[in-house]
Amino acid sequence: MFYSISQLIPFHFAFNLEDDFDLSKREIERIVSGYESEYIYLGKDMEKIAEIKKKYDDVYFALSNPILTMDSIGLMFLKRR
Prior knowledge:
By secondary structure, the protein is an all-alpha fold. The protein is 64% helix and 0% strand.
């Protein structure tokens, strides 16, 4: 018996990918906002905030634009006859 992909993956899992990206973007903004508040309150150097924002933007970009590559490994066993 063969199953189609729509039978194997529930509808709400297959088509909520955009919602997941929106949630992750909001979570990243929340985290960076927390860092900004901490740096302002404690009077830390604000130049570090730009680095933090860049790192989180890179993480979001990697999540939303995956690049799939496949590597293969070949194994060979030698036997004596």
